[in-house]
Amino acid sequence: MTFEPARERGRTPGRMRSAVLGVAAGAVAVSAFIALSGTADAASTLGASAGASGRYFGTAVAANKLSDATYVGILDREFTMVTPENEMKWDATEPNQDSFSYADADRIVSHATGIGARVRGHALAWHSQQPGWVQNLSGTALRSAMLNHVTQVATHYRGRIYAWDVVNEAFADGGSGARRDSNLQRTGNDWIEAAFRAARAADPTAKLCYNDYNTDGQNAKSNAVYAMVQDFKSRGVPIDCVGFQSHFNAQSPVPGDYQANLQRFANLGVEVQITELDIEGSGSTQADAFARVVQACLHVTACTGITVWGIRDTDSWRAGGTPLLFDGNGGKKAAYTSVLNTLDGGGTSNPPSSSTPPPPSGAACTATFSTNAWSGGFVTTVKVTAGSSALSSWSVGVTLPGGSAVTSAWNAQGTGTSGAVQFANVSYNARVAAGGSTEFGFQGTGSAPSAAPTCTVSLT
Ligand code: G2I
Questions:
Q1: Choosing from 169, 193, 271, 280, which is the catalytic residue?
Q2: Would you write out the chain's pLDDT as a tens digit for each of its 460 residues?
Q3: Which of 61, 83, 86 to mutate to test the pocket of ligand 1 (most atoms within 8 A of CB)?
Q4: 259 Cβ neighbours under 8 A, 6+ residues apart
Q5: Which of 170, 233, 329, 375 is most buried when burial is the number of CB atoms within 10 A of its CB?
């Protein structure tokens, strides 16, 4: 069995099919890759173009639109990350206390998995969209209910979420730099870190994010979030990423220091993600604003991806502002072309080659791995590092313990599911600069591989 890698969809079919068949055929793989090296076409979809620098391009998805053929056609073609727009919120997943309802969210997760996309979970703890029973709680009862909610939902989706918005919109607007007043805040200032600790315990494989709006430039609110993240990092509270919603319009344009603000958070040692991007407007003004946002992410190594908050203008929570990349008929807007061209224009590659330790001299490539395992399953991330020559293709062999099986892979094409499994590069990460590196991952059931992977290559 082979796996469909997430970012292959939408690529030039002829060449890619040849490359994949080359790997499956084993012995002819190296010559096939040499013949193919240097022939990469400009990527033709948002997901593939973002993938060329190791980033994702995502969208918010509504479960009730999964029967709309135009909507699904664009989703399947363009996006490599999916955020349920409303279906993972507290009112949707726990409408009555201790009674969980996952049907709509599960449909989205299963659709995402089917197209090889990953999922951002949104959102575990938030003052808004709480079910009525939560709104009526306070104090210890609310704190316990919140922690139980985080634990239950994160456990249900354990191993299937790339990143969770653990806490959403917990800071006040304006110049106070204070926490937003809410029933959750009134349970004690430590409610945010309590939520993060519960999420980590429930799903050690998900990245844990704090997500907010009006934090896109440096201001009193983003300074307060910055101080919280700095404090969490210094005290070992588990936080991996900060989400910048990036809802923009004429009253709230893309800030001039957008990139600098992303960078200062990145410098704290967290990933930064653009989580709910939309920009009201039209034509070249809108297209230029989208390009600035995309360029900022590409220039910040730790900016791992961009999610737009819906597909067509008519799908938007503020449809009147036509803030998205596709028009109501599903046609590509100027903003789409601008985003695609900006993604194709490059940026820093991710992860940075500068942070890659040099491989042992003489080795054409090395593969190192890290694993998050839980009872019955695991996620393994493999880093492939080139030696003193650039690679034009690579392949990594992993031996799974008996009874274990690979269920999905990303950023690589897998062959086999048990025993000796081989993972080959996909088109956008075939080339690795001398001393540079690239990462791929896979998920499985059973226990995780413990032996170091082996790496074989062809050189440019
Ligand atoms: O408001 C834009 C976003 C701001 N950041 C957090 C996001 O979660 C938020 O998303 C929006 C959704 O796009 C809307 O679709 O959150 C809204 C609620 O706060 C969502 O609107 C709700 C309506 O208020 C409900 O009446 C409706 O039942 O959508 C629900 C489902 O269609």
A1: 169
A2: 445 444 444 333 333 333 333 333 333 333 333 333 333 344 489 999 999 999 999 999 999 999 999 999 999 999 999 999 999 999 999 999 999 999 999 999 999 999 999 999 999 999 999 999 999 999 999 999 999 999 999 999 999 999 999 999 999 999 999 999 999 999 999 999 999 999 999 999 999 999 999 999 999 999 999 999 999 999 999 999 999 999 999 999 999 999 999 999 999 999 999 999 999 999 999 999 999 999 999 999 999 999 999 999 999 999 999 999 999 999 999 999 999 999 998 444 444 333 334 444 467 888 888 877 777 888 788 888 888 888 888 999 999 999 999 988 777 888 999 999 999 988 767 888 888 888 888 888 899 898 888 888 876 5
A3: 86
A4: 295, 296, 299, 300
A5: 170
- Mark whether 280 is an active-site residue: no
Active site residue 439: no
Point out the catalytic residue in the list 87, 193, 271, 276.
276
CB 161 within 8 A of CB 113: no
Cβ–ligand 1 distance for 245 under 6 Å, the answer yes
Residue whose token pair is 């923009």? 248
How far are the Cα atoms of 89, 383, 441 from residue 363, in angstroms, in the given order? 49, 15, 22
**CB 129 less than 6 A from any atom of ligand 1:** yes
What is the Cα–Cα distance from 59 to 310, expressed in whole angstroms? Answer: 5
276: Cβ below 6 Å to ligand 1? yes
Q: Is the CB of 86 under 6 A from ligand 1?
A: yes
Q: Residue 15's closest CA among 386, 456, 426, 364?
A: 426
CA distance 148 to 267: 33
Pairing of strands 56-61, 303-308: parallel
Does residue 78 have its Cβ closer than 6 Å to ligand 1? no
Tell me the C-alpha distance between 118 and 307, whole Å: 12
Q: Whose CA is nearest to atom 18 of ligand 1?
A: 129
Which residue puts its alpha carbon closest to atom 30 of ligand 1?
86
89 CA distance to ligand 1 centroid (A)?
A: 10
Q: Give the residue whose CA is nearest to atom 16 of ligand 1.
A: 86
Judge contact between 300 and 262, C-beta under 8 A. yes
Ligand 1 close to Cβ of residue 127 (< 6 A):
no
